Amino acid sequence: MSYSTSVNRDTLTPVSFLKRSAQVYPDKVAVVYGQRKYTYRQFLDRVARLAGALEAAGIAAGDKVVFICPNTPPVLEAHFAVPMLGAVLVTVNPQLTSNEYHYIIDHSDARALFVDDESGDRLLPVIDHLGGVRLVVNICENPGSPVLSGPEYESFLNTAAPVALTTGRIDSEDALIAINYTSGTTGRPKGVMYSHRSTYLHSLGEVIESSLSPDCVYLWSLPIFHCNGWCFPWAVTAVGGTQVCLRRNSPREIFRLIEKEGVSHLCASPTVLQMMVCYPESRRVKLRRPLQVITAGSSPSPAVAQGMEEIGANISHVYGLTELHGPHSICAWQSSWVELDPDNVSRMKSRQGVPYTTSVHMSVVDPETMQPVPADGKSIGEVVMRGNNVMLGYYKDEEATGDAFRGGWFHSGDLGVVHPDGYVQIADRADDIIRSGEDLVSSREIEDVIYQHPDVFEVAVVSAPDPVKGEVPKAFVVLKQGANPAAEEIIDFCVRNSAGAKAPNSVVFSNIPKTATGKIIKAELRNRERASGTGRDE
Predict the structure, then answer these.
(1) I need a labelling partner for 464 at 20 to 30 A (CA). Which of 28, 111, 350, 356 fits?
(2) How many domains does the chain have?
(3) Where is each AMP-binding enzyme C-terminal domain found (predicted)?
(4) CATH number of the domain encompassing residue 517
């Protein structure tokens, strides 16, 4: 017999977070951008007016609404206004090319397009070829200067009566709420689908794992277009915190806002943390309160981690993918680590850790048998996940979805080990394993050793072709300011300080290509080496 009724069941959707916070904290500041400050009452009003204007323009449940916008208030407002209509939000990187915009807008079947004026010029060549788009709105930093044909955002908000915030237009908590496109570094980007239920639960996961509270002040140094900002637009709203918008990252502005607004939390890639550590004035920053920093991607180098801690920040390392709403696991702190020396603490904190409270399932398995590998810190397998934050699938790509979900798990493509304490550590991406003769060499193992060199700030190791071994490891190194070691010194350091004398065959001192979210693009480095045809520097 089933007892489930409206009395004991409600639709799980992050849209409901704003209604509660606006009731509980109506006069509290919800959003800060420059000189502008919106209370929760005002934030709710702007969301209701955006929803009303979208509905009057013909946007209905299931329609896709694209936002090409940096970290400014309109994209935060869209995270509530679009899904409350049952429509689907598609946030897109503001730094893409015209052709990339054309592909994503067409592939997502977008009906409405909101474009910040800094990206408008790159839409001009393709705007007349977007057959499905019926509404274009300009988000203008300087009113009166729209780039595209269509209304300006602020005037658009006043084109219709506001819509009361309800969940009545949401058919099901399993309905589509957002599509996020992968970076596409190895091919066409794929559209990753999230549901109302998954974003609701992952938002609560961020509240728990990041220790968000009603007095938190969150700085937007993480791109909101990336995995819906890891669900922080909804998570911070859920607790009634304050969100400080940041149009573009610069260390000066980050530190200014940390001091001025009393920032307590931020998320950032190791690249942004690197900028902060290198900023000459960083040691003079006066933190008004403890600063919690969440970072993902590759583990921050020991130099970056130490530099952030000297500033007064506490860093937590998380791990995930777009298909998982961003973070799936966190290197949860253990009180016993206090007794360890600094090097061992850094080693423990660099691991990818354990699943979020709301994620639940994470394993390292033999990809053929799907059996877990021994928890010995040595046996390598593929990292796989199940749980509430796994995507619904890839939009209009059943084949790729089926491949990703084979065996009843999401396959990350990352190789890892499980330590005896149950913490997972990534060994490498499957694509990044170097097949040198009969040996399989982990690029991350070599990177971890090179990071220990006192002159090294950042490193990426990739395979390079070799006429004898097929592939050999090659290191691309960014040095600390003022350092000038020889390549041979880095290689000798690796030989002396690694088990099995794991070392790159060659070292190049150069910049390292990254995505807009700070992820190192190893495929670009590999392709460059294959094009040159040699793993040695002439």
Answers:
(1) 350
(2) 2
(3) 445-519
(4) 3.30.300.30
Please state, in angstroms and rounded to a whole number, the distance separating the CA atoms of residues 393 and 385: 14
Identify the CA nearest to 316 among candidates 300, 302, 303. Answer: 300
**Cα–Cα distance measured from residue 180 to residue 201, given in angstroms and rounded to the nearest whole number:** 17
In the three-class reduction of DSSP (H, G, I as helix; E, B as strand; rest coil), residue 528 is classed as helix
Residue 459 lies in a domain: yes
The span from the CA of 184 to the CA of 421, in Å, is 35
- Hey, how many other C-beta atoms are within 10 angstroms of the C-beta on 279? 18
| CB neighbour list of residue 506: distance below 8 Å, 6 or more residues apart | 464, 472, 474, 475, 487, 491, 535, 536, 537
SS (H, E, C) 319-382: EEEHHHCEEEEECCCCHHHHHCCHHHHHHHHCCCEEECCCCCEEEEECCCCCCECCCCCCCCEE
Sign for the CA dihedral angle at 375, 377, 378, 381 comes to positive
Summary mean pLDDT of the chain: 90
Identity at 42, one-letter amino acid code: Q
Any idea what the CATH number is for the domain that residue 128 is in?
3.40.50.980
Cα 348 to Cα 423: distance, rounded to the nearest angstrom: 9
Residue 202 domain-assigned (yes or no): no
Q: Bin 533: left if φ > 0, else alpha if -120 < ψ < 50, else beta.
A: left
Q: Are 90 and 103 in contact (CB under 8 A)?
A: no
Q: Is residue 78 part of a domain?
A: yes
pLDDT digits (tens, 9 = 90+) for 297-310: 766 777 778 888 88
259 falls within a domain:
no
Q: Of 155, 171, 187, which residue constitutes the final position of a domain?
A: 171
Listed residues 140, 171, 202: the one ending a domain: 171
Determine the Cα–Cα distance for residues 92 and 89; give it in Å rounded to an integer: 10
Q: Which two tokens stand for residue 535?
A: 């793993």
Q: Do the beta carbons of residue 32 and residue 245 sit within 8 Å? A: yes
Which are the contacts of 435, defined by CB distance < 8 A and separation ≥ 6? 441, 463, 470, 471
* Range of the structural domain that residue 84 is part of: 39-171
Contact between 430 and 414 (Cβ < 8 Å) = yes
Q: 409-446 pLDDT, tens per residue?
A: 999 989 999 999 999 998 877 777 787 766 668 788 88
